[in-house]
Amino acid sequence: MAGFDKVVGSYEEAMAGLDNGMTVIAGGFGLCGIPENLIAQIKRMRVRDLTIVSNNCGIDGFGLGILLEDKQIRKMISSYVGENALFEKQLLEGELEVELTPQGTLAEKMRAGGAGIPAFYTATGYGTPVAEGKEVREFNGRPHILEQSIRGDFAIVKGWKADRYGNVVYRHTAQNFNPMAATAGKITVVEVEEIVEPGELDPTQIHTPGIYVDRLIQGSFEKRIEQRTVRSA
Amino acid sequence: MAGFDKVVGSYEEAMAGLDNGMTVIAGGFGLCGIPENLIAQIKRMRVRDLTIVSNNCGIDGFGLGILLEDKQIRKMISSYVGENALFEKQLLEGELEVELTPQGTLAEKMRAGGAGIPAFYTATGYGTPVAEGKEVREFNGRPHILEQSIRGDFAIVKGWKADRYGNVVYRHTAQNFNPMAATAGKITVVEVEEIVEPGELDPTQIHTPGIYVDRLIQGSFEKRIEQRTVRSA
Amino acid sequence: MALSREQIAKRVARELKDGYYVNLGIGIPTLVANYVPEGMEVMLQSENGLLGMGPFPTEAELDADMINAGKQTVTTLPGASIFSSAESFAMIRGGHVDLTVLGAFEVDVQGNIASWMIPGKLVKGMGGAMDLVAGADNIIVTMTHASKNGESKLLEQCTLPLTGAGCIKKVLTDLAWLEIENGTFVLKERAPGVSVEEIVAKTAGRLVVPDHVPEMTF
Amino acid sequence: MALSREQIAKRVARELKDGYYVNLGIGIPTLVANYVPEGMEVMLQSENGLLGMGPFPTEAELDADMINAGKQTVTTLPGASIFSSAESFAMIRGGHVDLTVLGAFEVDVQGNIASWMIPGKLVKGMGGAMDLVAGADNIIVTMTHASKNGESKLLEQCTLPLTGAGCIKKVLTDLAWLEIENGTFVLKERAPGVSVEEIVAKTAGRLVVPDHVPEMTF
User: Fold this and answer.
1) Where are the domains of chain C?
2) Is residue C50 scored above 90 in pLDDT?
3) Measured between alpha carbons, how far is A195 from C166 in angstroms, rounded to an integer?
4) Interface contact flag, B120 A112, Cβ < 8 Å
5) Three-class SS of residue C33?
6) Where are the domains of chain A?
7) Which one of D41, D47, D179, D197 is the catalytic residue?
8) Which DSSP symbol is given to B161?
9) DSSP secondary structure letters along D73-86
10) DSSP code per residue over A197-223
11) pLDDT the model gives residue B177
12) Does domain A2-124+131-218 have CATH number 3.40.50.720?
């Protein structure tokens, strides 16, 4: 790896350094735009006691759900979880902790973490269990709560295309949390469907500039669909 | 104007409702990506006592500088000003007030204003005159200051292309402050070089979604260059 | 008779205006899209990062990378835009969405809403609901007026953990259209064939009943 | 002899590492780009929203929409990206830029820097300088060691309004390379032919002088 070439040769190399007890921020919404091969690598590494920051926790047998199988996750920071039975079981048995965070606040916490904003005020969650223990302050006559930003030891991200310098473009709504996750990892690992040469992507149309990306790998993806809704042609 | 068609027929219509004492947020950096025709319209309207939020204030005879000629600006909120003699004169004579704001804080204040974040903490400006009167709080062992967001009665924005629904794409570094400005106006007016039909722009490559845009107009632009630096071919 | 799901959606659709950006929650709110009045355009925002949501795809159009906030496969309409979750909630939190329609377990006379958590049951999370109720100025809550065993869901004070405080002004139940003003529900319309008495009986929170309460027509 | 502008730029360039993202301030820092060591790649960030800045354009390439933070017309290199000011300062404030080089009027032993405002003179503004010094972990300040009439600019405490507090660790003047450690300047290198005595005489802030102070070579 020389200069700005972020491409690594294997998934082992992509996730090297991930250790027990670390915090991992993951892109994805439901099963859409999830870094499925990086998640599989985390499973293979058998690291434990992870804190995972992700909007959801996958389903039984796919996405982040597979990290539940060997109880690798200690804590989830998410807006919506429990789409799978194993999650529910571990939660009820006290093996898994969940910090529920409103979806927009979660996105903003990641963005703020990457952008050097340690905390911000939002009206979201005021007067609800989310506000417990948080400072309340009025702005423009309305109460807001203070939310702190999030950074991770690792961020795992699913892109569509990237150049070797780590400039990433996302496809359709597979974008979701990925751009914010990419900014918030001490080590940010991106897997994509296609790696191109620098100069092939339009500089004004980069979703994640390469400065945020430490490692890049090309993979193939199952892309499972959670709610397959179709209309007749 | 029906449905989502944001196109207006004249610059008069584009800036209708702007009144004395209002706050106008303007995109642009130096003379790059400035809404030059919307600024000219403000001059023609002879509205006074404006607060202008913009990284700079143009130069003598161009950009926001032309609003100084008839003393239409009461206050500038900027990171860098005084590239013109008239500005200096009005400032020294006390006819013009300036609130200097670090460039990154200014960008974030606009973004926060548009995003419903009333205030955020930043390390930028701690220990400097910018911090005067602002709350200081430690996060991660480091002092930060509390900065409040900005919204404007109007936002004036220069885009490159837009569809009739107000989805905007910026060209090169003429992007700068424009996307944040676009989110932060009660009324956001965008002028562009070309208006296309909805569906012609790639949905994943929109810089400013049309939801932020109230009025759209196509203009022609002088695009003056401030520092013309070239190399021999 | 109590409104059907479709009638609820139809009644909500009358609150649409041409050029509205609208976020529709999962369930009945989603049906509102089917009743946009002729000649009117509205654009649907889906909080996972999509503005200008179209209908479900055909088999040929089906794309795993193109979903809505309910995780259903969808399409885009011309003039759509797709963006990050942070940008999506900037729109929502910043008050740029014109109308938000969502369900609830309870609402009360202070405009509080409880919609995400029933203590003792497994809590799956609030998703984007807290951001939606905090960010929108114009929210319509759709819900059944009372539980199956007749307990009112329109309360003096919510009993369940809140989704948002003081943010609800309009409620459409299967029995009535109500607005929340100065710490009371105000009965604005009743479902066809539903008596004011039934609504009064099933509303636990303070309720103002005007002299004339028009009946909805469909 | 005191370093020339070019020598200052050359000395700074030795601090570059392959793969560094670098923000260069206006003036001498800009010259650093001319001395990137052979076989090394660095990428220049310009805070108006450009990563991967290239050289000035030819007449044919000249484009009013393509400028740097000094408002000069520039080009992009392959692999460049262009983004908003908010994104640009997210990079800067978030500590993603590897090295920032900028000028100053004064620095002091606490790592404070004053670079934007001389009371009594017209204040044009701080531009992005406050964000740059607050956001970067690795900053090199380039400046003359003393004013034209011999007054030290390396002080016990800055006298001018600050740009940032406690954020500077490395200073390159025309006379010396110094680092700031535990409330003192530490003399690390001296310009060719400049004596330790001269540097001591021209440094007002506490200064630690090691036994051996190597001379820079060019």
Assistant:
1) 5-208
2) yes
3) 49
4) yes
5) helix
6) 2-124+131-218
7) D47
8) E
9) B--EEEEEEE--HH
10) -TTSS-GGG-SB-GGG-SEEEE-----
11) 98
12) no
- A170 within 8 A of A203, measured Cβ to Cβ: no
- How close A147 gets to chain B, by Cα (Å)? 9
The answer to whether residues C16 and C40 touch, using CB atoms and an 8 Å cutoff, is yes
Mean pLDDT, chain D, rounded, equals 96
Q: Is residue B112 less than 8 Å (CB to CB) from chain D?
A: no
Q: Which two tokens stand for residue D30?
A: 């800009």
Chain B residues with beta carbon closer than 8 angstroms to that of D165: 126-128, 143
Mean pLDDT of D156-172: 97
**Residue (of A60, A77, A78, A57) closest to A69 by Cα position:** A60
Q: Which CATH superfamily is domain C5-208 in?
A: Glutaconate Coenzyme A-transferase (3.40.1080.10)
Given a contact cutoff of 8 angstroms between Cβ atoms, the answer to whether D168 and D110 are in contact is: no
* CB-CB neighbours of B218 under 10 Å: 14
Average pLDDT of the residues in A92-119: 97
pLDDT at C126: 96
CB contact under 8 A, A224 and C131: no
Total-model pTM:
0.97
Q: Tell me whether residues A229 and C73 touch, CB distance under 8 A.
A: yes
Residues of A in contact with D82 (CB under 8 A): 203-204, 206
D197 is catalytic: no
Across chain C, the runs of DSSP E, i.e. the strands, are: 20-24, 42-46, 50-53, 76-82, 99-103, 106-108, 113-114, 139-143, 154-155, 170-173, 176-181, 184-190, 207-208
Average pLDDT, chain A: 96
Reported as a single tens digit per residue, the pLDDT across D12-52 is 999 999 999 999 998 899 999 999 999 999 999 999 999 99
Q: Which residues of D10-46 are buried (b: 16+ CB within 10 A; e: fewer)?
A: bbbbebbeebbbbbbbeebbbbbbebbeeeebbbbbb
Q: Are A20 and A45 in contact (CB under 8 A)?
A: no
CA-based nearest residue to D97, from D32, D60, D43: D43
Neighbours of A183 (CB within 10 A): 29
